[in-house]
Amino acid sequence: MLPQTALFGALALLPQALAAWPSFYSEFSSPYRNEEPDVEVKTLFQFQNNGSWIDNVVIRPDGSLLLTRLDVPEVWSVDADSGNATLAYSFPNVTSCFGISEIDDDVFAVVIGNFSTKTYAPTPGSFSVQKLNFKSHNTSDKRRDSQSQSPVATQIAPLPDAQALNGMVTFTKESHLVLIADSPKGVVWKVNTKTGDYAVALNDTTMLPAKGQALPLGINGLKVVDGYVYYSSTTRMEFCRVKVDEEANAAGEYQVIASGFLPDGLDVALDGTAYIATDPQNSVVRVTPYGQISLVAGGQLSTQMPGATSCRLTADGKTLYVGTSGGQVAPVLGTFKEPAKVLKITFS
């Protein structure tokens, strides 16, 4: 982690750094393909205020969505059909929510901590993993819809050694392990959601922030598929994976699948096809298991999804939900910002 003074100085370079990053608006340079699939994109729900920031999206067993917010310590519930949204839970004594992952049927682990959306500075030592249990409350009333049920919140574990926790994924429900990216530290923590024990599981140079960047943002989004941990490394502009053992420790070489774009949150289908949000590039891309990249929706000069931060694929692979920051880090064309929103992309 950069010292506070160094971080603030680096932030002054952010506009120049973002301007130097590649654009997907016109066409991809080789070996990228600008073959946009036949998709329908619509806004499912949008917050009212500029400055709102969706960090992560997860799908509940009933098909509704949970959104974590970076600008406030809140988790929101959104009906995937109507787009109606309600506040599900607000955490006290912190500023932000980050990764979220289902660890049991309708039970979710949530990363919380202190982070400034004005200076982009986290507070090391402020991060913890909490549990939101939706199934333990009002389960006897079958008439109540999921949005009307308040979850029960308990702490799983504080992580005082973490610098800035970010994306999270359940390793396996049977193992009771979640994996959490520590973006400036460049490691993946594993946390036992039953005991609260934690340790570094994965540590590689591909996870470290790139040198000379405005923000110390390395490993970001995570996904576990078929014995591999897939991850984005934002300032390195890489999408990677590593084979792991039953304890979530590395059991193979760290592999770079694709590079040359700015990956943020992601999801990976069972066949290894990845869908990745590109935040300041305002788009979602598809990456094949062989590293071929194509644009799904949006674009660096497009206002369709400013600051795409996260995405979540339905189990049938027909729908992709995308959360945004509204372009808070890098406004479209340098000026356009909007309230955060979640989009519904339907593949035909």
UniProtKB/TrEMBL annotation:
Signal peptide stretch: 1-19
Entry keyword annotation includes DNA-binding: no
Keywords assigned by UniProt, alphabetized: Signal
Keyword Signal: yes
The protein's name in its UniProt record: SMP-30/Gluconolactonase/LRE-like region domain-containing protein
Organism taxonomic ancestry: Eukaryota, Fungi, Dikarya, Ascomycota, Pezizomycotina
